[in-house]
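tool_call predict_complex ligand=zinc ion
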Amino acid sequence: MTNQATGPACTRCSAPAVVHWTRRLTDDEFSAFVALEQARRDLETALADPQNPPPDFGPLPAEADNVRSVYGCADHAVSLEAASLVHEKTCTAPPCDCAPEPAPEPAPEPDPAPLPPGWTDA
Ligand SMILES: [Zn+2]
Ligand SMILES: [Zn+2]
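tool_result ok
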């Protein structure tokens, strides 16, 4: 059996990818994604047992919840720092001139609980 492992290919030149990062979905991709999800829900609703309450799917996916992977070979990789950020929807691997979204704010360290009186040096 010749089961050749083919991993993801570089988005620019189709060489084997060594790194990947994420970008937002384009408007077309996002509408296709929502349409697919809606079709899946419609099918599931149609197949659901009418004796039971209709399935509750919750809200449709939002654009902010969805990213696509961009793959880069060694020649078309972004920096490690850039790869940790979400790129613009048009990102196609370097040279990419996106302004990646800022990294999420790190959660602030909680303040330590105050010590009881007499426990501090001051
Ligand atoms: Zn490449
Ligand atoms: Zn980019």
